[in-house]
Amino acid sequence: MTFAVPLVTLGLVLVVSAVVAGFFYQLGSRPGTPEWVSNSRNNPGVLWALPGFLGYYGVQSVATTFPLALALGTGRRAFTTGTLAFHGLLAAYVAVVGLALLGVERLTGQWFVGLYLIDVVVLGGGDPLRLVSVLFLGSLTLLSLGALFAAAWVRFGARGPLLLGLGCGALLAASALLLAPHLGDLAAGFQLWWLAALGVLVTAAACAGELALLRRASVR
Q1: Are 213 and 155 contacting, i.e. CB atoms less than 8 angstroms apart?
Q2: Would you say residue 207 has pLDDT above 70?
Q3: pLDDT (tens digit per residue) in 38-77
Q4: Which backbone phi and psi does 15 adopt, to 5 degrees?
Q5: Membrane-spanning residues where (predicted)?
Q6: Distance CA 3, CA 25 (A)
Q7: HEC string of 130-188?
Q8: 185: buried, middle or exposed (CB in 10 Å: 19+, 13-18, 0-12)?
């Protein structure tokens, strides 16, 4: 079931995108025109649809399995490592599915009706390497963050995720204030690898935080 959810989610995104495209068709926009292609390739549907499942699964992978794993004799470090390994497997699966759908999308002429789902700007603009990088690193980051918040809940109860969320919000606000005077320079010199590096950094920090929280967590 875990591996079916991304497929169902992407299928629903395709249906919703088709409905939206049909609406604009009725307003006079036509497939293949520069305006249609430009608007369609800015479709952020996948970017909005997948994070909910990935975050939820990241939480579930710790909150519901940690007590059983410890009861079966699994060490806390081994549990954290195993969770990260499975998250990597799931993230790779999402990336492969995305790559396969990109191929189908191109072979069918954008699903036979000029409908863009995967070949969009936010997923790398049709570049297979960028697509795989975005889906893999993005999925792994979201799964790891979900696991971190679940570890906070296991360690401190309901107040754990609340305090962690407040701390993350404060960190983001402080970072925004520090970077605000340099936004122009950052935008001018922006490189895509910055996002990849940020994803790796956040994933590493989340896994380290997860292990630190679970080291002292009691089995419920």
Answers
A1: yes
A2: yes
A3: 888 888 889 899 999 999 999 999 999 998 999 888 899 9
A4: -65, -45
A5: 46-72, 84-104, 131-154, 161-180, 192-214
A6: 34
A7: HHHHHHHHHHHHHHHHHHHHHHHHHHHCCHHHHHHHHHHHHHHHHHHHHHHHHHHHHHH
A8: exposed
DSSP 103: H
Task: Collect all residues with Cβ–Cβ distance below 8 Å to 142 and sequence separation of at least 6.
Answer: 50, 51, 54, 55, 58
Cα separation, 147 vs 87, in Å, equals 10
Residues 6+ apart with CB under 8 A from 148: 58, 164, 206, 207, 209, 210, 213
Question: DSSP states of 39-93 as a string?
Answer: HHTT--HHHHHHHHHHHHHHHHHHHTTHHHHHHTT--HHHHHHHHHHHHHHHHHH
Structure tokens given for 111 = 């699903």
